[in-house]
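Onboarding guide, step 5: your first structure request.
Type a short instruction followed by the sequence, for example:

Predict the 3D structure of this protein.
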Amino acid sequence: KLSMLQTTHLLDSLHSKKISAVDLVRSCIATINRVNPQVNAVVLVNDQAEHQASLLDDVFACTGKIVGPLHGLPVMIKDSLLTKDLRTTCCDESLKDYIPSMDCHVVSLLKKAGAIIIGKTNMPGLGLEVQCRNTLFGVTCNPHNLLLTSGGSSGGSAASVASGMVPIAIGSDLLGSLRIPAAFCGIVSIKPTQGRVSNHGHIPPQSPNPIVTSELVIGPMASDVEGAERVLQIMCSTNHVEAEVTVNDYEYPLIDYRILPVPPSDRLRIAFTFSMHNKPVDYRISGALEKFMNQLKSKGINCERAQPTDLPSDHDLMESHKILAAEYMESVFTEIGSQSAEKDDQGPSSTKVAAAKTVQAKLRRSIEKFLTKYDAWVLPVTCVPAISHNPDRIPVPCQISPNETQYLKYWKAHIAYLTMFSISGNPVVTLPFPTPEYTQGIGMQVVGRRWMDEALVAVSKVLFAQLHHHQPCPPGLVSKL
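The system replies with structure tokens like these:
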């Protein structure tokens, strides 16, 4: 079952000719055919994938050279990213027959690095959910428990990795769409700093106003940190920047991603937050975080409970998020009780935009000041573990203790701990807790300083090793079939 091996192991094996690209693609397709009928993570399989793998094998055999760093690696792509000559629907009925004539910029980079696009993954229609369901392709189930949601909106990508269909999948994140499904499905995701990876070619189309879509990021999902980083390195590449790609007007120059050595664990300082004011957390999540903090302490890693003391209010954050997030997310904010943003014919009013940017700047200063004292900040992904399928978005039970349950509004239960980092743009690595927590869908956010993605990922490797002893996350349903 080659598709279930770690990405780094697969790449080493491909590049040393221990396995062929064709063998790996066939293994992935065999697993998809066996598992996808139960999980429903994949909405399209590239019928040219095996042929493309054969061409790569022929080039390697004839020249003795690999095409690129990802030579022969099968990758799943979220259905919101354009893929040339492969149907791309964003899982919406209006796009059910759309076949793009170009690739999303990230997909183009992956292909040029030698990756094989093996298929497209399920998502909620237009990404408007934190579960993975739509009228076009149906519901994606959690590979560890089919009665639970995979999370969303990158739920199909997460489930395809968690069930061993592919070693790597690509997702995107606006409101937690990489972080929620990674936690629920028990895998790793990396949300890079906003602006570090081009989002050109993502559906829905970007607004002409760059402020409106500035929170959207594209990132990798894998069973381990090192594998996700190998793909992120390509996604951050400054080579082959297409002429039509507009680089966001950020203060950071285009710099290639450079993998850093793992830091000595005894020099690290990690801040832990188990819960925050007005954001209840299930006792299984807070308990897992506390247990992990004590485990790190026993290994000589400096850890303490801490959080910034000067964050903007929840109300200000949500009002800011309405402006800085995509306009099509307005339905989310309506449900959770915020007033509609004031708009003119050109979009959000200049007054509202200025206020949102002021809140964003305050938030960034607060987090940056806090992270000058720590190498990473660890806190919950969601208020609750992976939930049962909930098509009606009814309130979600949150077990504050074994004997106390609160019911949280649907969106609050999922995004209460995510919004601030969508606004601030900080990089976030999502790490899963090991079994038996996998079956509960529990994960943690590991947050780093903006533009210091490499340093955050290096720290995350240390944490992941303590959680999983350098082993990849175990596949879910596929191990039982």
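Each response can be followed by summary notes, for example: The two ends are 12 Å apart (CA to CA).
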